[in-house]
What does this fold into?
Amino acid sequence: MNTDLLNTALSAAGRGLPVLPLREGKVPFGNCPTCAHNACGGRPNMKTPGPCTCERPCHAWAAATTDPDIIGSPAWARVWREAAAVAYHPGGAGLTVVDLDHADAVDWARATLPVTRTVATTRGEHWIYRGAMRSVNGVRDGVDLKSRMAYARWLGTGTGTGTGSMTALPEVVRALAVKEPAAVRPGPLAVTVPVRGGECRHRTPVFLERGIAMGEQRITEARSGIHTAVYRTFLAVLATHGRCGCLTDTHVARLFAAAQTKGESARHCTEAWNNARTALGM
It folds into this structure.
């Protein structure tokens, strides 16, 4: 048995994180023979596990537990002998992990997302927020959202050996998981910017400038799904800057220009902007 991994799992579980073992390559253990092919009644891909009573962790994220009697049981001992790492279920602990898979994704997060606890990974960083949401992979290049029905690798004490304090899950992260409505809501074709007046109290001009620049870059570098990339960019910009009066028509025009350079029409830009405002209740 790998006692180091077992002790790591027990320690994490003691902090309220549901844990599970991973095979080599950060892969969860597969279904046991009893539950193979969802024979226990779960739905495809085990997104809704069935009434499994197996002692071994055969349902990936759904097998995660904080119960030390289960983690250290003889049935799990056989699994720990083959395990290569420990993972945890963020959603089960009321957390969301923004998994940044490379340096460019990390740079985007630093320019776009509110600071929170940051944990270094093999290739990038995990940004961990308090609050659960649905998990979505590939919300942009190198960025996955791991929360409900997902697992993240455990990297040390306190959800990681990184720095900073966890902050509440921000709207800008939730907005990354929102897909544009298929039906366009009617709205004025003129560009409108929600302005409340006054100096922004929680963002600096430099932060806004970097956010707009990153938005332009995200649209410019999109290789497919341009309409979706434009919508998600508008959504992220509005979620971060749209309620405090710091956005101007000039900022919006820059985003529209980047979108039209990629082939979007002015009408589609306006519709995407209006849909993003509607999705955020603005």
Remarks:
- Residues 172 and 236 are 5 Å apart (CA to CA).
